[in-house]
Amino acid sequence: MIIPPWTASRPRLSESPQRTQGPGKRSEGSTSVHEAERLQDELKESVVRTSAPIEPPRTVTGLDVTYDTGSDRAVAAAVVVDVASLEVVEVAFHRGEATFPYVPGLLAFREVPLLVAAIERLSTPPALLVCDGYGLAHPKRFGLASHLGVVLDLPSYGVAKTAFVGEFTPPAEQRGAHADLTDAGEVIGSVVRTQTAVKPVFVSAGHRIGLDDCVSLTLRLSGRHRIPEPTRQADIESRKMLREWRSLE
């Protein structure tokens, strides 16, 4: 597996039970857009696409990053949610600074270092990652969920509020309805109605999980809200921590 420069020296998640140090400003700050595109092309070759069903996980870890307005300061949150009850089991944060610019299609190079640092603060390595973003539903078929899944070698998928690429016919209005998201004749995701008569979400497999399982888990995790509980809670917690960070100044 090809590991990006900012994670190459880090232990695998299974090797260290206690992780409190984030990635900081190492080589990611010097990664150029050209180098990021080259690395992205290499990393995507490691994506495991599958249609085989997985064993339903007991917990799922939702991920999100909230940025301070007008700066590169950010808080990444990793929230572990019990699949059966949708209760929050554990929350971990990383406060830091994004050192790669915002470039459409290269969001992972901005967020992966922050998210890895938050994940490493969890007391138990996650079983499955759900990102606020895209997996295969990406121009390079390698969005944030795929990138993070490959880097950590974990099953991962993305749930986004809007489509980045692709075409679709809106699904029926009832909860559970879904339709293919396609691009250049390839099914790259699913447009899923998580609540009746509410705007759908855009689900795409990231790494080591099939689209059918992604759709099923998204519905199971959505509860009473449009957004699945793991990423909804990660958004809430990262925003809350950012407010607390500001209040200390």
Automatic annotation (TrEMBL):
Superkingdom to which the source organism belongs: Bacteria
Basic and acidic residues composition-biased segments: 34-47
Enzyme category, top tier: hydrolase
Amino acids binding Mg(2+): D64, D132
InterPro entries: Endonuclease-V
Cofactor(s) for this UniProt protein: Mg(2+)
Keywords, ordered alphabetically: Cytoplasm, DNA damage, DNA repair, Endonuclease, Hydrolase, Magnesium, Metal-binding, Nuclease
Pfam families: Endonuclease_5
CDD domains assigned to the protein according to its UniProt record, in alphabetical order: Endonuclease_V
An example molecular function term from Gene Ontology annotations: endonuclease activity
Record-annotated site: Interaction with target DNA: Y102
Gene3D superfamilies: archaeoglobus fulgidus dsm 4304 superfamily
Location of the protein in the cell: Cytoplasm
EC number: 3.1.21.7
Key word Cytoplasm present: yes
Catalytic activity as recorded in UniProt: Endonucleolytic cleavage at apurinic or apyrimidinic sites to products with a 5'-phosphate
Region (Disordered): 1-59
Transmembrane segments: none
UniProt record similarity statement: Belongs to the endonuclease V family.
Protein task: DNA repair enzyme involved in the repair of deaminated bases. Selectively cleaves double-stranded DNA at the second phosphodiester bond 3' to a deoxyinosine leaving behind the intact lesion on the nicked DNA.
UniProt name for this protein: Endonuclease V
Native source organism of the sequence: Paractinoplanes lichenicola
